[in-house]
Amino acid sequence: MKVNDQTSKSRTKEKHSSTFILYTLIMKKPRKSKKKHKAPWECTFAKEEKCDCRPGEIPKSDKEYFEILSLCVLQAGLGWGMLRKKWVKYRRGFYGFDTDRLANSNMEELLNNPDTIKNKNKIKAIIYNAKEFQKIDGEFGSFSNFLSSLKGDEDEAIKQLTRRFHHIGKYSAEYFLHSVGYW
C-alpha cells in the first residue's frame, strides 16, 4: 500500500508540473519580437535577438566618433547592457576618450585604473586606435572627412576600418558605421 501511495504522489507531481508548464506556456504574454531602439547608446540587445535597431546620429566631433569606436572595441564579447550601465565609469577611466591623452598613455597606467576594463588587448587597442585617429586627422582633417571619402563603397569602408583599427572586425565595423549614421 505504501508503494502505491508513493507512485500516486509521484504521478500527481508529474501531472502538476506538466500542467504548470502548459499553463505558463499558454498564459504568458508573448514577447514582442521587435524591440525598437537607436544605436549605439540604446542598444542593449545581443546581435542574435530580434530587434529593430535604428541608425545612430552622425557624431558632432571626432571625440564622439572615437568614443563610439571604443564602445565597439570594448563591447566585443561582453553583455551590451552591462557595458552601457558601466559606461560613465569607463568614460572617466579612459579620460573622456580624449585621443591626445590616450595616445600618450601606457597600458599599465590604464590597466591599474579602477575605472577601466581589465583586458590588456582591449586597452592596447584603445591606445593604438587613439594614435590611428590622430593619423587620420592629419591625413583628412577630421574623421568625418575620412568617412566621407569612403561614401558609396560600403565594402571599402568596412575594409578600411578593419585594416586601420585594432580589435575591430567586420561585424564591429558594420555596427560602428550603423551607429554613426553612415548608412
Could you outline the blueprint of secondary structure elements for this entry?
Elements (H helix, E strand, L loop, with lengths): L1 H26 L8 E3 L13 E3 L7 H14 L4 H6 L1 H7 L5 H5 L3 H5 L8 H21 L2 H7 L4 H11 L5 H10 L4
Parallel strand pairs: 1-2
Helix pairs in contact: 2-7, 2-10, 9-10
In short:
The chain has 183 residues and is mainly alpha-helical. The chain has helices at 2-27, 62-75, 80-85, 87-93, 99-103, 107-111, 120-140, 143-149, 154-164, 170-179, and strands spanning 36-38, 52-54. Strands 1-2 form a two-stranded parallel sheet.
CATH architecture of the largest domain: Orthogonal Bundle
In CATH terms, the superfamily of the largest domain is Hypothetical protein, domain 2
Structural class: mainly alpha
**Could you tell me how far the N terminus lies from the C terminus, measured between alpha carbons in angstroms?**
74 Å
CATH topology of the largest domain: Endonuclease III, domain 1
Radius of gyration: 24 Å
Q: Strand count, sense and closure of the main sheet?
A: 2 strands, parallel
The general outline is globular
- Helices, by number, come to 10
Number of structural domains: 2
**Which strand order do you get reading across the main beta sheet?**
1-2
Provide the residue-averaged pLDDT: 81
Please report the first level of CATH classification, the CATH class of the largest domain.
Mainly Alpha
- The helix fraction, in percent, is 55-70%
Poorly predicted parts: 12-16, 18-33
Oligomer: single chain
Instruction: Give the H and E element order.
Output: HEEHHHHHHHHH
Strand portion: under 5%
**Strand count:** 2
